[in-house]
Amino acid sequence: MDFMIAIADGFIGMFQAGAEVFMGFMTGIIPLLVTLITAVNALTKMIGEEKINRFLQKITKYALLRYTVVPLIAVFFFTNPMCYTVGRFMPEKYKPAFYDSAVSFVHPITGLFPHANSAELFIWLGVATGYATAGGSQAQLGLMFLLTGLLVILMRGLVTERISAYMFKKQGYERILNEK
């Protein structure tokens, strides 16, 4: 009989723990996330989507900016999954590499800007909580994630651009490589 009571207590205890976590989110991270999303949307409206779009078209001409600044702006302003649409400002030959860079950046940005990819937030919170418990600073960890992410997306973008060029050429799509 004691065994059955222990199972019942454990079963309901699991839901009580879940409810506590849920209430923590409702009073902590959820209001923060809503505030950040509202602020970024307001900033986008104040600057104007057209101005942001024109700026992006200009800087995609340079590989360093194409695979660092453009994904950063795309993920920050348009968030996941809309950030991938920024690839429309690039010639076809750069689109696979841009996508690789952007998709690789949606997690590293979450530490400092959780609005950018709220689906990754729970992963980030798990890592950051463990790091803070061990005595580290969550802000420092978020910054290191961001900087490391920028380096990684640059490398991925450059490598994917070369692989794409090779594949376009191999499959007879030289016209794509000659686009400006």
Q: Give the uncertain stretches in residue-range form.
A: none
Number of strands: 0
The N- to C-terminal Cα distance equals 77 Å
Q: What characterizes the major β-sheet?
A: none
Q: What is the succession of H and E elements?
A: HHHHHHHHH
Molecular shape? elongated
Structural class: mainly alpha
Helix count? 9
The helical percent reads over 70%
Average per-residue pLDDT, rounded, comes to: 87
Estimate what percentage of residues fall within beta strands.
Answer: under 5%
Give the C-alpha Rg.
21 Å
Structure explained in plain terms:
This protein has helices at residues 2-27, 29-47, 49-59, 63-66, 69-82, 95-105, 121-133, 138-170, 174-177. The protein has 180 residues and is mainly α. Helix 5 (69-82) crosses helix 6 (95-105) and helix 6 (95-105) runs antiparallel to helix 8 (138-170). The protein is elongated, with a radius of gyration of 21 Å. One of its GO terms (cellular component) is membrane. This is PTS system glucitol/sorbitol-specific IIC component.
